[in-house]
Every structure is written in structure tokens, then in C-alpha cells.
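FAQ
Q: What does a multi-component entry look like?
A: The components come first, one per line:
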Amino acid sequence: MEKPHGPPLSRGRHGWSAGALHVLGETPTAMNVFSHFRGEIAALVERLSAAGALPAGLDTSRVTVEPPRDPAHGDLATNAAMVLAKAAGKPPRAIADAIATELRKHPSIEAAEIAGPGFINLRVRADFWRERLFDVLREGLAYGDSGLGKSEAVNVEYVSTNPTGLLHVGHARGSVFGDVLASLLAKAGYKVAREYYVNDAGKQVEALRDSFIGRLKQQCGEPIPDSAFGTIYQYPGEEIADAARAALAADGARWRALALAASPDAVALDAAQRFAVGYMMDRIREDLAALGVRHEVFTSERHDLVEKGKVDAALEALTGLGHIYTGVLEPPKGKTPEDWEPRPQTLFRATNFGDDVDRPLKKSDGSWTYFASDIAYHLDKFRRGFRTMIDVWGADHAGYVKRVAAAVKAVTDGAGTLDVKICQLVRFLDRGEPVKMSKRAGNVITVRDVVDRVGKDVMRLIMLTRKNDAPLDFDFAKVEEQSKDNPVFYIQYAHARCCSVFRQVREVFPNIDTKDSRLMGISLNLLTDSGELGLIKALAAWPRTVEAAAEAHEPHRLAFYLYDVAAAFHGHWNRGKDEPGLRFIVEGNEPLTLARLALVRGVQLVIASGLGVIGVTPVEEMR
RNA sequence: GCUCCCGUAGCUCAGAGGAUAGAGCAACGGUUUCCUAAACCGUGGGCCGCAGGUUCGAGUCCUGCCGGGAGCGCCA
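Then the predicted structure of the entire assembly, as C-alpha cells:
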């Protein structure tokens, strides 16, 4: 991603450890304050070693710099003294003393205090924080972009619902989660591929085809009752009737001939299947677009794997590695199915790679199992250059994680890693009452239904208000409420308030120039209030939040962060109600107003930047 | 029976191996009907399910239990 480079403003002006920073190779992207000072402290430890105050060759990899739990302790806390104590052969507090003494000489450090078992609490000078606000203004929406990923290729696969019906609400969470995770990783400097796996090879798509043909027959006048769909024909969904209508509208003669044929040949059947799958995928893509979810790669199980022989090839590879054998599985313990019979099967030695039992690769009719194509699919991703793969699945697939992770390990010979993110169920409620998920027989509530009702912004943000592996409540009454209890409203409102300040300032200062270029040229020394500095500190936490969320594959952290920033902003705004001197627009004092506008602009940019990753529109006005 | 996920304030949940564990709601007590936009300020509330272990340090990592949810040969 293109962004203006150039070192942070504090660099080089003072000369403290200027050389050491280069040794550490810190990237000149927007500063992650915490990793910045981690680097400073690591360099300092080296200098103390060189001077003989500490032993040489200390390992500083476990040194962390974090926000202290209690803000009263300062801006930053480091555990350096404690993690170095053992190797240095000195008590933590002695090391802390040495480090703190040096840190007090640092031009950006106002105070360094030793606390508890050997923490060093740092207070950073206000000037340093004010310069971080310039970082925000300079980088704009790109603030928070990170080089963390070092352009490493990562494949994120999400949604991947079967093309046998529409995208129902149950798929919304994984869709949003995957989409935002992909955006987040891109912001953190990874090269991301957004992928959808189309399961168009199994019996289910044949059943779709047959239901589609049934609908064709019905629409061509054959006496097939609606009750046949869901019984004789597997899929009852109205969308399959839509598909039939679309087919007849496009080429009536051709599809009528197929519908009325006594026994269609294989070519005709295949054409019907392709049409039905194509139609469903179009509808799914439309609904995903309405939700703002996009993919770059659609991999077809049938066309890209099976027909290209990649399933056979993958299984041959596994065989070559010695991970496949023929054997008989034990029945599942505790609950043996009625029709259980011991039978020799083609098995993958999953137990060698952390799974609990070996897994079958062939069905009794000799065809590959779904698991077999999944192995081929992940090998295919790996061969396309993705060592890191992330799959986003629904809770109902949780039991499948171990075997696929085992297969990835086996088939890539340990070189590929798979992280499966499981999204727990969403309970859709209205005023606390569960919402029925089926409208009438065979017609479930779709993602589109909900997006049409509440909008994509609400849908997306709410889906990130919980950790992926915790269940989530989606209450229609609550998410549409305009109050501070609604996180969507609360965050949007903070952004809208920022916009409102810029609109209103013209009434007081008709000719004021509030362009970023102007704001970057002013002095921020007038920002002295604790609320103002607190807001800047909140903004300065954005790069760290992006990096941490990306590393953990946890996009929900962005939503929580934005809520915190909004809370800090609303809190400061509210203080201005009682103390007019704290308001952003100060009549008769343009320099102060400009400094505060810079702060408002920073809040606006960071919220817009964060909402951008989440895929939510930052609104300029509440309505 | 086995596997995975969850268990943190009355409720819904945050919590990146660090200090005296946080937020919102609810409860309680006050303020305000202002116009800078949909309220604001404050208070109380906790064996972080239980028991061990690793660690200088565990809500966080490991093991075992207890409780809740999901899944469990060839479907996808």
C-alpha cells in the first residue's frame, strides 16, 4: 500500500540512540508506540551490556512494553527488568534501577518509576503524544497500516456455502468475519487472497439438479404438487423455482425439451446442473455484495479439482508419503449406529498428525469422500503459494477441524499451516424473543432479508461485537435503536459528531482553513487538557490494535477498539457541556480552535480508518 | 463414550503470561430537559466453575474434574 514515508518527527532531532534505531530496523510506517519503546529499551540494554553494567548477550526477546493496567501508573509499562533478572544474575529491582536511570535521559520520557516486583512505569512527554496526532493527519485513512505481514501470502477462505440454496442468516457471521479478517490482514501488510470454495461436485448438487428439473417440469405443465419439493425432490426452496423460471425465460425451447424428455441424457443432465449451480452462485454473490462481502477467487471443487485430476494427485502424494492404508475403523464409542458394519476402507493416517481416529477417504461406492477433495483443495492452495491458510467455518463444522489440520500438515510435509476460525451461532431475536428462522416450508430467512431490513453496516458491525468463538445475540429491536446502548449507533455518532464540528466551525470562523495540510502546520502545544491528551493516546493505540488483531486473527478487536475511541470522544465532548472552555470551537481563539480541530480530525480519521477495515460506512450525519 | 468451544459482577461480555481483574446494561444516589445531537455524574457489587501443575509472576499456558453448547464411519 502506498503511503508517505519519512521518519517520525521525533527521530533524529535529539540524537538519543539514533544509531540503535537503525540497527533494529524499525519500519518507517505509522508508529506503534509500544514496539517503538520496546526497541528503545532493547537498544538501551545493549548499551548497558557494552558498558559493563549488565552481562553481554542478554536475550531481550521476552521484553514487552504494554499499557499499564491502571492508567495512573503511567503511559507504558515494561517487564524488562523481570525477564532479564535470571540471565543477568541480578535482582529485578537492581536491573530496573539501571534501566530506569537511563530511560530518564530519553528525550521523550518524562518519568520512569519502578513498581511492584520490578515493573518500570514510564510517562511519556506530552510533545511526543502531540506528534502522534501529526502521524494520524499525515497518514490519513492509511494510519495504522503496518509492515507486520512483510507481504507474506495468506489465503483466507470464507462463506463457501453449498450452491444448493440461498445464503441464509446463519452464514452472515462467517461471511463478515472472513471478509473483515482479510481486510485486516491486508492492512497489517499481508498479501491476502479472498477465496470461496464451491462444493459443486457431490450428491447435493445432483439433488439440486433434480429439484431444478422438477421445477422445470412443474412450470412446463406437468402435474407436480409443491409438496413434492422437500420430499420426492430434495430441495423445497422457492429460489429453485426462480432458477427454472430464469432458465425458461432465457431459452424456453431448450429447457422445455429437457423437462419433458422421458430420460434426459448425461449431457442434458450436466447442462441442467451447471445452470442450477450457476444460478445459485449468482444469487449468492448478489447477496454477498449486498452485505459488502467480496471474494477474488472462486475455486470449484468439480472444475478446478476433480476434473483436473487434483484429488487423485493429492491422494497419490499422500500415499507416496506413506500416510494412507486400508483398514477397519472401530465403531464410534457410546452410540453405535444401527447399520454399523465393520468394513475395510481407504484411510488417512490422521492419528499421526494429531487427530483422534484415522479418516476414510473413499465411500463404499468407490468415489472420494468430501474429506478427500478437501485435502486436495488445501494442497492446491499450498501449491499456489499459500503457506498460511485460514478457513472460516460455522460451528457445525467444528468437529472437522482436527482432521483437516492434520491433512494439511501431512500433505504439505509440515510446511503449510491451517488456522480454522469457528464462528459460533447467532441467535436472532426481537425484543428478546427468538425469531423464527423459517418463513414457510423450505424458505429460510436469508442474509438478504436481514440486510434489507437493518442495512449492511449494522449487520457487519454487530457480527464483530463478540469474539468469533462465543455465541452472539442479534436483537433486531436493539440494533436499530438510536441510543448509546447500540454500539453501531455509538461509533457512527462519534464520527458524525466530528463531521459536525467541521461544519459548525464555519459559523464562528467563516474563513478558517481546516484542510489537513493547514492543520499539520500548526502548533499543538495548546492541547494540554488530560481529556485531549487521553484522546491522542487512544488514537495512538490504533497501529498496535491492528497488529495485535491481525496476529491473533481476531477482527472483533477492531470493533471493541473503535467503541473505546468513541467512548473517549463522547466523554470529552460531554465535559464540554459543563465546561464551555473545553469545547472544540472556542470563539475568539482561532489558534486553540485549530489545535482542537486537529484532534477532532484525528478522531474522525481513525474511526473512518477502522470502519473502513470493518466495511462500515462512516456516516457524516445521524438521521 | 469421544472430540471441540464456552464458563469472569445480578445480566451481556472485554481482557496481548504481568501490578489492586475491566466495560456496558441492570440496581442504587444525584444532576439535567440544556442545544455542542439522542442525556450526564457518582456508588455498590468478584474464592475469574473446582483442584493440581509450569512460571519470578496465571483469568490467560498444561493436566484432571464439574457445568453448558456443538459435533461424532461412507452426507456436505
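Q: Is there any commentary attached?
A: Sometimes. For this entry: Chain A has four domains: 18-124, 153-199+295-423, 203-290, 487-614.
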